[in-house]
Amino acid sequence: MPDFARPSTVDEASRLLAAGGWRVLAGGTDLYPGAGRGLAGPVLDVTALPGFSKIEMAKGLRIGAAVSWSSIAEARLPPALRALQQAARQIGGRQVQNAGTIGGNLCNASPAADGVPPLLAMDADVELVSEAGLRRLPLQDFVLGPRRTALREGEVLAAVLVPEAGLAGQSGFVKLGARLHLVISIAMAAVRLEVTGGVIDRAAVAVGACSPVARRLPAVEAALIGAGVCQAVERVRAGDVEAALSPIDDIRATAAYRREAAVELVRRAVVEAVA
Amino acid sequence: MIGFTLNGTLVEVAAPPTERLSETLRERLGKTGTKVGCDAGDCGACTVLVDGKAVCACLTPAARVAGCAVTTVEGETPELSRLRASFHAHGAAQCGICTPGMLITAADLLTRVAQPSAEEVETALGGVLCRCTGYRSIIAAVVAAGQGQAAQTPEGAVGAAIPRIDGAAKVAGDSFGADEWPEGSLVVKAIRSPHPHSEFTFGDLAAFRARPGVVAIFTVADIPGRNAFSVIPPFADQPAIAASPARFRGECVAIVAFEPEVEPDLSGFPITWTPLSPLVTPAEAETGALMHPNRPGNLLIEGRVIKGDAAQALAGSAHVVQGEMTTVFVEHAYIEPEAGAAWMDGDTLVIRACTQAPGMDREDTAAILGLPLDRVRIIPSAVGGGFGSKLDISLQPLIGLVALKTGRPCRMVYTRQESMTSTTKRHPAEMRGRIGCDAMGRITGMEFQGRFNTGAYSSWGPTVANRVPVHVSGPYFTPAITAKARAIHTHGPVSGAFRGFGVPQGALWQETLYDRLAEKAGLDRLEFRILNALRDGDASATGHLLQATGIHECLVALRPHWTRALTEAKAQPGRGVGIASCWYGCGNTALPNPSTIRIGLSTAGEVVLHQGATDIGQGSNTVIAQIASEALGLPLSAFRLIGPDTGLTPDAGKTSASRQTYVTGRAAKAAAEKLRAELLRRANAGEGASLRLEPGSVIVSDGGKTTRIDLATLAPDANGHALSCEASYDPPTKPLDQNGQGAPYAVYGYGAQMVELAVDRALGTVKLLKITAAHDVGRAINPMLVRGQIEGGIAQGIGMALMEEYLPGRTENLHDYLIPTFGDVPPIESLIIEVPDPEGPFGAKGLGEHVLIPTAPAILNAIRHATGAAITRVPALPHRVLEAMR
Average pLDDT, stretch B103-120? Predict the structure, then answer.
């Protein structure tokens, strides 16, 4: 087994991965911190795989797992993806945005991953590839807990898929940290709204860094439906937000603060989404 | 083999495919302009362009750049050239360690946006951290480079805003501690305690020693000299390599030297840890088991200042306020982790490393290694930020030991985590007390008690304990005071020097209380301070009759800004304005701290300045030369600088205590005057004569008479100088008695800062809008460097106020430990006040530490003005602000 492989076909990648023991490398922004002069162990680089670095429209939107945050930020995408693009501009600095990938963000499974709430709000799925073939999972079934995903041995995340329904409407993302750049979120919220004639028909609301995995907030969504755009913020009830979350105390903030801040962030993300 | 284009040239390199590109560039291709600050993508210092895109080289697998074009700071592109000139002209590089990353990131921006706005620069460069400049000069430099403005570079000596004379190196990628090492150097790694307090035993060291590539292992048993150091010798207590038990997390207990070609792998090092319960807080420590047998109550020292009867004064006061303030460990977070190399030059051990104090490094290292002083030579590298922590030795005795014992050259580079865990911190403080004033608002008396967590070893604990009571009145006339500060040992990181030696902590307490006292007295907060400002002839808390007191001028200069800001704030909810003052004594507290400067004329007709004051980014290379140039009467362009180097330069003391401009400046002025007097004597010319250099000679013109002194005919001395003079200066101080009465400093500097901000009332976040800073520097030897110090000090004050908290085991990196980024430092307006001090060179006072002191309290005062919330614990993280608002 070689120490390093950069396969150029998905078949080759699947075959190699089937042997097990690989560390999958994309942007490297989560793998390198803590490493020595280089990465230990056999490393499989997915950045040369066809489709992995592309954003394509076909029956929804397909974002290759190795697409960088700056590519996402700079792509021409429907307004529903504005939340994702806003998140893309706030992940690390430009250096990290140029290297870090959407797939890496999901596989790293940090509770504070900025990419997750916007994707949850777009009802995104993930596409997983292995020698056994393709598998498609809703995002909320993929990220299982801190540093834990549904990836099976020999499987690699190939793409994030946003179904056509998830591309409707407009969205917004709000991030809260103790400094302006290069900051791990204390909490963040993403909201996507479908509005007809000034009235909200569909709402998708997600909050991150306030539970082991970022979560959708169904009670808040239900309350928003039928609201006029101008009354939307008032429909976001603190109890509905707080009930869905289970924040912890850490170095960045207290659980009590996160619970309270999340309410405000959801309200601001609603405003952002209709802006 | 990985082939790519590096700065326009095709290169092929045999590197493992996942090797960090930063490693490949530096170690295999010799391009050390790319700096490594964190190896985690947190600081951006290692930014390079890969096919035009900025990426962190530390996160980039070498194989990824195959076939690509890589641009480093060594490259020449039109954007880089313009940026280099602009950074130099704007003083945008101070220490220079972040500069390559800044330049490269800015070059990426300029290729995308030809003429970026300040806001675009801020966003684009947000991924690069700078700890020196406060970012504003960098923004200005990039904006100007985009607009193609020709860089203005004035000339002149004292008073001229000339670019730093070592600036060209800074914008080219200077040579720091990690950037030079002798061929074949061994790589030294340390084994450090993972516990705050733990016994340990070694297993089979011989077996580890026998691993391929391991050259030597050294433990406490191998230290040939006295294994105890301190920056203050009578307190020497810290081992270079600890015996069991380790007393703080990160303490070095063994070192391993590896052959250069192997990956230095410490896994499986045979050591068994038996953790013991640690003393975490000073409260526990005061009644806990003794960490040092001769220090009962784990008390390192108590400093005190007692003047008059404070209790009685307070009892008779019209208004009294009482309050507490708590601060935490603060990390210096310079972007350059400690690094250096050591080798034997005959019998002499040579150490080239980053440091603020080559003379002290030499003394401590010689003592630890059992060498006479003249067998140790310290050559400071460029220093990538210090701020107090590089005063204490770190790796010097470790690499010194390896070079001495193995006879082979060696080098060591701390990881970011090592740098953060093993070096000193700002003292956490628990402070409380009362201040009173009369019905008119005149301060009557103060009582202050401070308990400072000094960590495992002494370091600068005694200085902090002495500085705080001396300064805690602030620059206000205080007739009666009782102030005591105790430094207590715990199993925390060693607390040492950090810009201000405890005075910034004290200022947080006193300046927030003064706001409340002003309110009680019914006075405007600024007018209260103006009313109480120290004036010439007033006695300080130590009974020192003061001269050249510039605080009144600083506060008065802020008046129009204050009025405007208050009016603007009133109009908008959530807005607040705060003010705070500072004063700071320059040089050691009532202890000698001489500097010596040598200046010569070479036979070729150059002025050679032996400049031993370490320039850690603050600008002493430039300032000392400007002073010497002015005093000598020859232009700076004729100067060549030597040193610092303990083998070549006389001791100019340490770069600390805001002393270099003043103390070394006085020595430089005296040395230059001596040389000038010698030239005038030889020409038999009067005081008003002018000097001019020609190749090999000096021309002295006095009225109509011109005399040529032919330098080439004079017998050169040991340094090759035809003429040479040396002078020393030591501040005249009077020792403090048991009540802290005396004249601890000969020169004080003063300042006041005003902060305008907005508090998000729902989230508790603070947005700084503008900071106006008035600082009395006596005489601005170089106004651009003065502004650079002000902006950089403010940035650190912002961090201390709003985000910085070092928690051992939890914030040992630059993404959990937050320092201000581009977006966190608002526009800063500097008002330079010059109240000349008769003792300072050309009237100059120190500045380096003053600039940080008022920022944090002014921010807290503005938060209280905006919200009514009194914050009594920093950092004021959003959740704490929100809680205080309830």
Answer: 98
- Counted residue by residue, chain A has a size of 275
Task: Say if the Cβ atoms of A95 and B17 lie within 8 Å.
Answer: no
Q: Do B129 and A28 touch (CB under 8 A)?
A: no
Q: Do A264 and B19 touch (CB under 8 A)?
A: no
Please enumerate in sequence order all residues whose Cβ is within 8 A of that of A61, keeping only pairs 6 or more positions apart, or say none.
Answer: A55, A77, A78, A81, A161, A162, A166, A167
> Which amino acid belongs to residue B207?
A
The backbone torsions φ and ψ at residue A241, rounded to the nearest 5 degrees and listed phi first, read -70, -50
Instruction: Specify the residue for token string 């000069």.
Output: B137
* Interchain proximity B877–A253, CB inside 8 Å: yes
Best CA proximity match to B184, nearest among B406, B35, B415, B416: B406
Q: Judge whether A161 lies within some domain.
A: no
- Residue B724: helix, strand or coil by DSSP? strand
Predicted pLDDT at A2: 73
The per-residue pLDDT for range B219-266, each reduced to its tens digit, is 999 999 999 999 999 999 999 999 999 999 999 999 999 999 999 999
Domain of residue A250 covers 170-274
Question: pLDDT (tens digit, 9 = 90+) per residue, B488-508?
Answer: 999 999 999 999 999 999 999
Count of domains observed in chain A: 1
Q: Please say which residue of B413, B440, B475 terminates a domain.
A: B413
Residue A181 has its nearest CB partner, among B19, B20, B822, at B822
Nearest alpha carbon to residue B624 among B638, B641, B607: B641
Residue-by-residue DSSP string for B440-456: TS-EEEEEEEEEEEEES
Whether ipTM exceeds 0.90:
yes
The reply to whether B439 falls in a domain is yes
Domain range for B137 is: 1-155
Which token pair is A154? Answer: 């020999």
**Of B47, B53, B58, the residue nearest B19 (C-alpha):** B58
Same domain, B702 and B568: no
How confident is the model at residue A1, as a pLDDT? 61
**How distant is the Cα of A70 from the closest Cα of chain B, in angstroms?**
10
- Tell which residue, B497, B418, B495, has the closest CA to residue B38: B418
pLDDT value of residue B435: 98
Helix H or strand E segment including B358: helix B358-369
The phi and psi torsions of B402 (rounded to 5 degrees) equal -65, -45
DSSP 8-state assignment for residue A65: T
Q: Give the torsion through C-alpha atoms of A96, A102, A107, A110, to 10 deg.
A: 60
Tens of pLDDT, residue by residue over A1-30, are: 678 999 999 999 999 999 989 999 999 999
Cβ A227 vs Cβ A235: under 8 Å? yes
Instruction: With CB atoms and an 8 Å threshold, state whether A176 touches B20.
Output: no
Measure in Å the smallest separation between the Cα of A252 and chain B Cα atoms. 8
* B821 closest CB neighbour out of A35, A181, A186: A181
> Are A251 and B815 a contacting pair at CB < 8 A?
no
Cα angle vertex B793, ends B612, B587, to 5°? Answer: 45
Question: Which CATH number belongs to the domain containing residue A243 in this structure?
Answer: 3.30.390.50
Q: What is the 3-state secondary structure (H, E, C) of B92-157?
A: CCCCCCCHHHHHHHHHHHHHHCCCCCHHHHHHHCCCCCCCCCCCHHHHHHHHHHHCCCCCCCCCCC
Selected residue of B19, B817, B879 to mutate for chain A interface (largest A Cβ count, 10 A) = B879
The encoded tokens of residue B383 equal 């220093």
CA–CA distances in Å: residue B439 to residues B475, B512, B522, B708: 20, 20, 9, 70
Structure confidence by residue, pLDDT tens digits, B833-848 = 999 999 999 999 999 9
Give the CATH number of the domain where residue B585 resides.
3.30.365.10
Nearest CA in chain B to A31: B59
Same domain, B222 and B360: yes
> Residues B467, B579: contact at Cβ < 8 Å?
no
Q: Would the CB atoms of B263 and A182 count as touching at under 8 Å?
A: no
> In angstroms, what separates the C-alpha of B354 from chain A's closest C-alpha?
22
